[in-house]
C-alpha cells in the first residue's frame, strides 16, 4: 500500500478530518469570535509561563508577523496583555487578563464538546484504533 495514490489519499483524508475538527472548534467558540489560531494561542499560553512572542512562534511553527497579528487581536479583545520585564527589555512577554484566565478555564469543556460533536458517529473502538494507527504511522515517519 505504498503507492503514491494511497499516500496522497491518506493525506487528503487526514486534512479533511483536521478541517472538520477545526470548524467544529470554531463553531463552539463563535460567541467569543475567536479563530482556531487564536484558540491555540490561548491554549499555549495557559500551559506555559514566561512565554515570549518568539517562543510562541516556535511552538506554532508560524512567522513572527503572523503570530504578532494573532496576539494583537487577542490583546484588543481583552484576552491577553503584552509586557516587558525589567530584567529583559528585549523580549515581549504575554500573560492573560482576567477575561483570558476565565476563558482558559472554560476552554476544556468547550473543546470536549467540539470533539464529541465531530466524532459523534464513531464508537470508542473506532477512535481507539484510529489513534493507535496514527501513532504507529507517526513513529515510523519520525524514524
Automatic annotation (TrEMBL):
Domain HTH marR-type: 1-143
PROSITE patterns (UniProt xref): HTH_MARR_1, HTH_MARR_2
Keyword Transcription assigned: yes
Organism: Romboutsia hominis
Keyword entries, A-Z: DNA-binding, Transcription, Transcription regulation
Pfam families associated with the record: MarR (PF01047)
GO terms assigned for molecular function: DNA binding; DNA-binding transcription factor activity
Source organism, top-level taxon: Bacteria
Listed name of the protein: MarR-transcriptional regulator
InterPro entries: HTH_MarR-typ (IPR000835), Tscrpt_reg_MarR-type_CS (IPR023187), WH-like_DNA-bd_sf (IPR036388), WH_DNA-bd_sf (IPR036390)
Annotated PANTHER family: TRANSCRIPTIONAL REGULATOR, MARR, TRANSCRIPTIONAL REPRESSOR OF EMRAB OPERON
Amino acid at each position: 500500500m505504498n503507492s503514491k495514490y494511497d499516500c496522497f489519499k491518506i493525506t487528503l483524508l487526514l486534512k479533511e478530518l483536521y478541517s472538520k475538527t477545526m470548524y467544529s472548534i470554531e463553531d463552539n467558540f463563535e460567541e467569543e469570535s475567536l479563530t482556531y489560531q487564536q484558540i491555540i494561542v490561548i491554549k499555549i499560553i495557559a500551559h506555559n509561563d514566561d512565554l515570549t512572542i518568539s517562543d510562541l512562534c516556535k511552538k506554532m511553527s508560524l512567522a513572527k508577523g503572523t503570530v504578532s497579528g494573532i496576539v494583537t487581536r487577542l490583546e484588543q479583545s481583552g484576552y491577553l496583555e503584552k509586557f516587558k520585564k525589567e530584567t529583559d527589555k528585549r523580549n515581549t512577554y504575554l500573560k492573560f487578563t482576567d477575561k483570558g484566565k476565565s476563558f482558559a478555564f472554560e476552554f476544556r469543556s468547550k473543546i470536549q464538546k467540539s470533539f464529541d460533536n465531530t466524532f459523534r458517529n464513531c464508537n470508542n473502538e473506532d477512535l481507539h484504533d484510529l489513534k493507535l494507527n496514527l501513532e504507529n504511522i507517526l513513529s515510523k515517519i519520525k524514524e
